[in-house]
What does this fold into?
Amino acid sequence: DTEVTQTPKHLVMGMTNKKSLKCEQHMGHRAMYWYKQKAKKPPELMFVYSYEKLSINESVPSRFSPECPNSSLLNLHLHALQPEDSALYLCASSPTPDRLNEQFFGPGTRLTVL
Amino acid sequence: GQSLEQPSEVTAVEGAIVQINCTYQTSGFYGLSWYQQHDGGAPTFLSYNALDGLEETGRFSSFLSRSDSYGYLLLQELQMKDSASYFCAVEGLMDSNYQLIWGAGTKLIIKP
It folds into this structure.
């Protein structure tokens, strides 16, 4: 299994909703990443988990809350989002935290905040 | 500061060769990666250079010159399916964290 899966593919939510994005990989990778990508822009790093511990939080607002229940799973909990948070949310993994160039990306969740 | 420069858009003809350049200014450089992203899709890893020189993978090649802080992606025998955005990304230090620093992307348009 050489892929990263993400659910849901699309999500529409209101500003008062609470929702979660899910990411899963079974490649034995020990680093997992959340990125946000706006149209025609590069991916923007949000969080990094190294060996299931949060190692990087790129000053992301607290309405985004990551969670890494185990080495295969990564969640992103969303609460009280703003319309400007609408974007493609990408999950990625790499074998170890220092092998950044070997990131495998999931297909992403297209999020729309109304 | 950290910066990567690449052209915003490149147009080429099917069957031709195209080169996408990337210049960078970063701290703690470790290597240069290239990713391809089709509209609506996820980035896909293409190639990686840690040392100077040319790396070839099928129709795609990537070059790095560390002394010039410069690299390029070369696509040969262009096919319509190569129409996509191409990002260069550098492994470097940002705010004391080791992470990928991305260029703004180059949209490659291929005409028949």
